[in-house]
Amino acid sequence: MFERFTRGARATVKGAVAQAERVGAGSVTEEHLLLALLEQEGGRAAFAVTALGLHDRRASLDAAFAEARRRGGLTKADTDALAGIGIDLGAIVSRVEGAHGEGALDADRRGRRWWWSGHRPFTPGAKTALENALRVALGRGDRFIGEEHLLLALTAKPGVVADVLADHGATYTAVQRALYGSVADGGDGEGDADQGRAQAG
């Protein structure tokens, strides 16, 4: 599949590895893919990121990801579901951090296998995002996978990255509009996640 990636998409994947290395992460995640996209210059994805104002809100994105890591990577839907059955995730995080230190629920703090292998593995979520980028490209009739397909795939896959992007105004439909100037179904923002999931597989 990697041979179908454009130069910019390959640079994004390499940039994600560099992001993981920079912060000492044990694996490459969807978050690292997004952060690498934010550092790309030129190309459709960089234009969309700028048009959506994500560059200007990088500190806010970083804070949102840090908070998600503190929650053990649980999404808003997960947190809401737990609250619905009477479980206060904030209280649990506080108790765990009180006993084991700040960031104790950060999944990346556990098991650093990469140090002896020489490279960091991609998490299942990051691999799925890369596979979904192929599906997005094929769904649009494109022969190659570009950074724009990676960006769309990240907004389409339910999870922390899609939640954080949506909170910053970068839903699937908003990104598609920024990339291509229109939305194929003429949508009004309703059903963003469903449309993105359908296209991403």
TrEMBL record:
One Pfam family from the UniProt entry? Clp_N
SUPFAM superfamilies to which the protein is assigned, alphabetical: Double Clp-N motif
Asked if Protein biosynthesis is a keyword of the record, the answer is no
All residue ranges annotated as the Clp R domain in the record: 2-186
Question: Which InterPro entries does this chain map to?
Answer: Clp_N_dom_sf, Clp_R_N
Gene3D superfamilies, per database record: Clp, N-terminal domain
Q: Which UniProt keywords apply?
A: Repeat
Annotated protein name in UniProt: Clp R domain-containing protein
